[in-house]
Write a structure and sequence with these properties.
The structure is a single chain. The protein has 17 helices and 13 strands. The chain is α/β, with parallel strands linked by helices and 506 residues long. It has one domain. Bound molecules: zinc ion (2 copies).
Amino acid sequence: MKYFRKSTALLLSVVLLVSALGIGFRASAGNRCSCAEIPRVMVDGIGVALHYDQGGPDEYDVSVVAPENLKEQVLPIVTNIIAAAATRSWDKGADAISALAYGLFGHLQVDEYGVSVNPVTNFAKPVNTQQNHQTNPKYEFSYDWRMDPMESAALLNQYIQEVKSATGHSQVNLIAFSEGSMVCMGYFAQFQYDDIAQYISIMGAHNGLTLVGELFNKHIDLNGTIAAEYMRAYGRFAGDDGAFALFKPLADVLEGVGLVDALVGALNLLLKNVQDKVFADTLIPLFVQWPALWGFVPHEYYESAKQTLLSGPKYDDFRALIDNFHYKAGPGYKADTLLANAAKKTKVSIVASYGFPTQPFAPNSLIDADGLIDTARESCGATTAGLFKTFPQGYTQKVADEHNHVSPDLRVDASTCLLPEQTWFLKNQIHFTFGFAPFLDFLVSSKNQPTVWADPAYPQFLTHLPNNTFVPTQPEAPAKTVSLPQSFLALFDVVCQLIIAKVQEG
Ligand SMILES: [Zn+2]
Ligand SMILES: [Zn+2]
């Protein structure tokens, strides 16, 4: 201890001497840059290409859905699923679901220790040191989005150090999308805030998803009506790029032969009857062993989900792995604490969205969401009126401050957010596509903490228009009550009868 103090004192005097001489360690590095263009480290979500045999002679990109399997394999399997449901052959149906899922996602399987079964990965490409950050400030961090966010965060830290040294900047802007926000929570938990000039979360998964919480508690219910709502939403807003493009070939194949409704109905009927078998044979080995998916499970669903899906000594190591993220950086109070701390030390901007249900796989999919993640969770605590609903006229915000935080369309009350002055809401911005470059520029170019009051062009509530422009949100007429037919299975039975009749004819 004595020695430590002495050497600290010695070091201090050297530092004082050096700075007195006006040299400074930083200047001696020779490539310091203090320009206004702070490099941006982008941390994307699920859907970035993974690589087979990365760095090896046979390297190639693999997508989320194996597209080479679509045309040859999917159609006969889907026919089998529908036929099994129509004839109530439950075990055959479960096997057909298994064949479909393995055909599409088998290449991404992870074992019970959280290790990829195939040589598929994505380790961050090294920073391009030739990149001119003043003309191109974006540095894309890539990672294996199936894996433990704490591990990905350690790789992110290395990447940030490389960007700093390549650009001569002492800090970066950290811009996260979707799962990227989860990795950034892992980063803040382990590496704190000193290297970050501003943290921006866009439709972030830092507080989990109700959808995943429900599914991981075996609450499954496919909803054809919401599926139809999705089709409409994508028709209006989705481009050909983004993660959705990966699923489009599948949708095209099924739609082309009129099988979407029949498939949804068949899957629902089968799942109601062979849910445990489908979980044991297919969902657990294919998806539940992705450590990252456990980062999407909200706190209130977490322990029961572990009991439901990961019981027994087989999963001792895996449970320790996912607990490490969940309890140090994961959904719930930890992420909120990390973000609150971040806001004290650096600039923090949170961008959420509403206007869509979550995906139609769970009984309570009809919540305010961006098409995937709950609005309340990604905004860290907004109060919403309920999907397609409005607050009553004369509604007063739950937390009084000197501002109005109720959206002009009476659908969102931002006063309950963790950071109400620095949380934006983009109405009708679906999760999988985000291309609002001027808004990002506004956030990163702000010298001080940007707030929802800083620029009238970017108030707290913005609306995404189909031509991919954004305008301040306006009051709207109260939405009509959306009525959802509860008779989807009945409709499916009609389809089955038609198929059976067709089979008997031919
Ligand atoms: Zn610079
Ligand atoms: Zn306020």
